[in-house]
Structure formats: C-alpha cells, structure tokens
Specification:
Elements: E1 2-6, E2 9-16, E3 19-24, H1 48-62, E4 69-70, E5 80-83, E6 104-107, E7 113-118, E8 122-128, E9 131-137, H2 139-144, H3 146-154, E10 158-161, H4 174-180, E11 188-189, E12 192-193, H5 195-205, E13 210-213, H6 228-231, E14 238-244
Parallel strand pairs: 4-7, 5-6, 10-13
Antiparallel strand pairs: 1-2, 2-3, 3-14, 6-9, 7-14, 8-9, 8-10, 11-12
This protein binds zinc ion.
Length: 246
Amino acid sequence: MEWRESGELRWLEAELPGALASFSTRLGGLSSGSYESLNIGVLTDDDTETVLSNRRLLDEALGIEPGAVLIGRQVHGAELLVHDGPQEPAPWVAPTPDPPEVDAHATAVPGLAPLVFVADCLPIALSGPGGVAMLHGGWRGLAAGIVGRGVEATGATAAAIGPGIGSCCFEVGEEVLAAFAPLGPGLAEGRMLDLKEAARRLLERAGVTAVEDAGICTRCNQDLLFSHRGGGPMTGRQAGIVRMVG
Ligand SMILES: [Zn+2]
C-alpha cells in the first residue's frame, strides 16, 4: 500500500489484480471543528454542502466520475448489493431520502466505484474474476458474514484492508469475543480484539490468499484519520473505494 497526495489531500492506495483500492484520510477537505477536514459523511451534524464539496475534492483527486460512486445507508449488516450500472439519482452526488440499506457493494462494470464510509470500522476492498467489492467491516457485519458475501460476489483472490481500529484500542464485551470465538485462539488479549486479524482469517477461510493491511489504527492516528471511539459521535467519516482498472 502506498501513500498518494494531490494538493492537501492524502490517501492510501493498494493495487489489486485488475483493480485499485483507495482509502481516504481526514486531510485536505473544507470541514472544520471535529469534522476537520475531509469529512465525506452526510449523516453527521456537519454542513451538508461542505460535505458534498469534500466529496467532489475526493473525486477529483482520485480521478473518479462523481456519478460512478456507489453507496448505501450502512446499517452494520451483511447485505451486499451488486450494481450493473450507476445509481440514478446518485446519492453520492446529492443525498437521497432512501438510499439502499446495505453495507457492501459489488460491481463488474469498469469505472463504477463501490464506496463505504468508515471511522474505526474496517474498509475491505476485494477483487477477483467476478469484479470488485467494497465492504463496511464492523464487528457486526464481519460476524454476520459480510466477507463471505463479498468473496462470493466477486470470486475474490485478493483483498486490501484500510485503516481501522487496532487491537491496541478495541476493547469489546463478552458477546463480541464470543462472536469471533469460532475463528480460533489468538484473536484477543483479554477484552482487546484484533478485528483486522479476524477479517484476515475470514478472508483466508473464504479463499482469499493475498491480503494486504494498511496496519494503521484510526484511534491512535486522529491527526490523520477519523475515529468514532476517539472522537465520539461528532466525528467525520473517511472512505474506502475500489474500482476496476484496465
Ligand atoms: Zn490504537
């Protein structure tokens, strides 16, 4: 994974077979206060017009057509939506009242760009012969099988895990530990869960052998990234985005 920049924007980029995954940071946007500065989530108390401007800045930096970005209202589930074309109207460009309630998007159409919003949860990009997918990997979605859905939809052989909360900062309750117990020992020290290792094991079980991890904890790096646990409810969102490349 490599750092990229354009103006004030900085993001991480991972090359996957036939695809490119990007993970944005909080740097280079227009929002202020606890949303400083590249907040791309409208379901916050941040000013919507400013968020839409931030989204345009991100589109420009990544060279993505705004209408090609595929998003939903994330509900910590494991549903995946397969897209055969752009969303019309595009909720990324102008918020719509009823975006699809899903936490994962897949497509085999070049140019389309599945995107998830994160601030501690793991953005997981997949690529395979059946296309690309972007997953919102919180513990609930991971425990509910979102990785398997993504791999099934794409035939993924490779994955990239962007910045998310590390085992250094992810203290969880017994019910969360129990949800991951089937993945075997070594996933937690006491109540500190290694969610990235859980994701890696789920990917490997699903047949994805090439797994790249940014290795960056959001909560430990709040100058660079939004963290829900670190910043509380008044926190912005960053993006995980993937698209097929020719
Ligand atoms: Zn940490």
